[in-house]
Amino acid sequence: MDFNLRHLAVSELKPHEKPTEDIADARHRSMMDAIAPYAKPTVQKNLTPVYVDYKTRKTKLALVLCPEWSPYMPPFSLARLSGVAKSAGYETHIYDLNVLAYNAYRDDWRPNEKIPFRLWDPSASWRWLGDNYNQFVHPLLKPILSDAIDKILEKDPDVVGFSVYYISEEPTKWMCQELKRRKPSIKIAVGGPNVHKSWFKIEPYYDYVVVGEGEINLLKLLEDAEMGNVRNTPLILSQPEDERLNINGLPMPDYESIDFSLYELPNGVNSEISRGCTAKCTFCEETHFWKYRQRQAVDLITEVEWLYYNKGTDIIWFIDSLVNGNLKELRAFCKAVAAKGLKINWTGYARCDGRMDLEYFQDLKAGGCIMFNYGCESGSQKVLDDMNKGVTIAEMEANFKHGKEVGIWAATNWIVGFPTEDYQDFADTMAFMWRQRNMNINNAGLGVGYGLGPETIVGQNPHKFNVAWHKYQGFWISNDFTKGGSHVMARVKFIHMWLDMFKGFTSNAISYPIRDNLRKEHYVINFDDPTYFREIEYEKFDYNIIPPVDPNNPYANSLVNEPWTFFRMLWKVRGGFTAEVHFNPEIDQREFGNTYGACFYTGVYKFKIDNDGNWEADFYTKFDQIDNPHDDREPPPKGRKGPFYAQDYSRIQANTAKRARKLAKPEWSEDEGRSGQDFANLLNEEAALNASIDFSFEHHYVGNGHWGNYKDYEVEVSSTSTTVMPEKEAMNNKEATSLSTVKVSDIKRKEIEPAPAVVPEIIVAVPEVRKTKRPLFPV
């Protein structure tokens, strides 16, 4: 099944035939009986209702979505807000410029080679940022934005609201400025996931800035505009930290100004069965945006049934952070769909859960579920525990097995390079992927590796997760200096290569982010027998094959061993092969942009192994600690400079950070953050590190060995959250020689003198961004 559900699209959208009144009534009674054991009869407590008071209003509203976002279905977030605004009496129109731009890209820009790379692909999100956007994308997009401005001004709105994601900020800002230039009296409102961030810059041309859920604050800003209030500075409307809006009984999403035929799935819409997330994964900011609440099954089925019979909608992609956050209410919805006789197909984001047994999956299937988009993240039990995923490897494998048995597909999402992930953990992830490759997986979201989010549990207590207080070369670095941007980039490249090796060995095609250049420029692999493959178990193995490059350079000692996990796992599943893999700043920056800071390095890894496990390796690695071109600090003599950059996220006051901080339990005050003295000490440590550390090195390793029977290191599947594994086995590493030249200074940290008791300016740089994977109710 196509992950994007294109095969379910209809060529002509028609409402489904409504049942007669007696049949509809009988189905409703049957539904109420079916959901009774599972559905909550009353709404959750402590929810804030959204009061919509209809009046005749003069204020007109336009809601705009700039690219880039999903072009498959209309933007539910804007439809929801439009429904609220219209129900209050405000004339409202939606302008989805994302789908217009996508259609131009699909039909013109790409086929006519007007743009030299892919867009609307998870691997291309960085293409929408900064200079790359301005040079390549904006010249093509500008006519679409300009035409939209003409159409918006024709409707003469008083307020124009933009949904802002980090990859849509550049075109959004351009449109805001153009609207203000052409009609200075117009009011500009911004909201959405990017506005939640503590580093979001409030531009002077914004009149309203909405932080948090949009429904109530949209009505507040429209009331402010209706009253004709004049403000010299932006009005910031922030949601209280503990507020949770009641998402039951909201006005029906408004699609009146949406042309469904523009979308890849004209018979599809997004919706929500919950808001927020029950999980508190340590890597995730999205789980802290707002607190969890569940929509009642009877409320949701009312919306679904109306769309089914009035619009012809029979595909629903739930945008919940966690569609199975409340297993009983989800089951009730499925029972309701079956009892109502609605022939719909739905999917949503989920987490693996051991409580979902075969019977549960059968009810999901009967209720229209065709696919779960699982946040797997890792195949290592240790890493899952550090991420606080609350699931075991055995439970994950059972979910995949039951899904296949009933015909529910599995899309998957992965994070490689988590701070506590070692070589073994990375190998476990590759093993899990291979073992599940025929369990109805149709997509693997491979991402760009772990990027430290300031408003996550890790960001609010980094040392607990092996993350230093300082960035190194524009990317996070581990406390022990054994993992940084170079290591994460290597694992991202290897995990994409790993999926390349699956082709021809899966029962169905698995889609994943397209990186065509990897095969062209980054690697060559030739198998002794291209048809050979084998099934594997998990194993425990020691990947520290190359001896330490230098006792004072842990960065180098770990980086030189990065290729082994990929080479060994590839041999385990595909037998003998010859490989050559390249890393260098030219090809890697062209592929990954500045995602990993200034951590690019040169590597040429030649490896040969036969089916029996006899191998030869010739590895060359060179890393230069360059002057970081992305350093935004003021240069000396007044400013700070160097590869290390002190970061303090403890004082961020955004609701997301506050919630994460409470769960992170840092040593400092949850309300006040670090003391001025503490941060001054960090600045002193930054200076000491920059004065004493140079991780530059050059290393050439030549070795050979024998890995024996690939089953020699097998271990049991993890079935408990506290994994006890045998000690790492020693490896037979024969006749290895190491030829290295190393340039590195003593990395022992200097004694840091207590800094004066002053409160310095807190500097918070823009962190690495992990693309939010779904819309989040902006204004």
Give an overview in words.
This protein is an alpha/beta fold and 779 residues long. Among the domains are: 184 residues, Aldolase class I (TIM Barrel, Alpha-Beta Barrel), CATH 3.20.20.70; 202 residues, 3-Layer(aba) Sandwich (Rossmann fold), CATH 3.40.50. Helices cover 32% and strands 16% of the residues. The chain has 21 helices and 23 strands. The strands form five sheets. Strands 2-1-3-4-5-6 form a six-stranded parallel sheet, sandwiched between helices. Strands 7-10-11-12-13-14 form a six-stranded parallel sheet. A six-stranded antiparallel sheet has the order 17-18-19-20-22-23. Helix 13 links the parallel strand 13 and strand 14. Helix 1 runs antiparallel to helix 9 and helix 13 runs parallel beside helix 18. The longest helix is centred in the N-terminal third of the chain and has 25 residues. The chain is globular and about 80 Å long.
